[in-house]
Amino acid sequence: GAGVSQSPSNKVTEKGKDVELRCDPISGHTALYWYRQRLGQGLEFLIYFQGNSAPDKSGLPSDRFSAERTGESVSTLTIQRTQQEDSAVYLCASSLTRDSYSPLHFGNGTRLTVT
Amino acid sequence: AQTVTQSQPEMSVQEAETVTLSCTYDTSESDYYLFWYKQPPSRQMILVIRQEAYKQQNATENRFSVNFQKAAKSFSLKISDSQLGDAAMYFCAYRSIQGAQKLVFGQGTRLTINP
User: How far is A86 from chain B (nearest CA, A)?
Assistant: First the structure.
């Protein structure tokens, strides 16, 4: 596709359930980022993938959060045993290279609601 | 760690007028990049303008320009001839040239355009 695609667009889940969020980056983009945006807040960095290098997981808030990426393609963000404070929009972004001037292209996000 | 501060949670402007959004940041680095992103209700983050810290000349993109004051660590966004489509959340972001080059975002400013 022409842009970063995220699915599902919205997800409602019960507290304690696991959820999996998907991100399809722009083809050829080597860098991929996940961010979390709570209501009315800025974006919090979660995790970063660059090619085959070890991911930067420094932003993951707890061990209930994990993410995977196969090569330079799809990434999934998994949240286990969801809590109400996990409710937020999860945004994925990709960039052509790890060059700092290369802009991040964002998807429309997944809005997660934990009831 | 770098921090970005946007001190104006909300701003409003009359259509066709000019508005300036403020942003300050804290860093010990001498070289980095700064960005302004726009987030309309669709949730997608859209790059508005970017600035390289080593360039003294302020970046300009059509109706959007920045006032970059490196010594003061200030990076304000000026929108000229405001249009209804400019209404959105605006986020200032910092990106290091070191490490994972993740974007560090401010809390955002909600801009309303009054017709």
Answer: 18
Separation CA A110–CA B65 (nearest Å): 31
Residue in chain A nearest B108 by alpha carbon: A42
How far apart CA B48 and CA B77 sit, in angstroms, is 10
What pLDDT does residue A98 have? 66
pLDDT in tens, B50-78: 999 998 899 999 999 999 999 999 999 99
Report the distance separating Cα B32 and Cα B94, nearest Å: 7
Q: Any bridge partners for residue B13, and if so which?
A: B113
Of the candidates A81, A82, A51, which has an alpha carbon nearest to the alpha carbon of residue A69? A51
Is some CB atom of chain B closer than 8 A to the CB atom of A50? yes
- Rounded Cα distance between B72 and B94, Å, is 15
Contact B113, B83 (CB under 8 A): yes
CB A88 within 8 A of CB A34: no
For the four alpha carbons of B83, B85, B91 and B97, in that order, the dihedral sign comes to: negative
Peptide bond into B41 cis (omega under 30): no
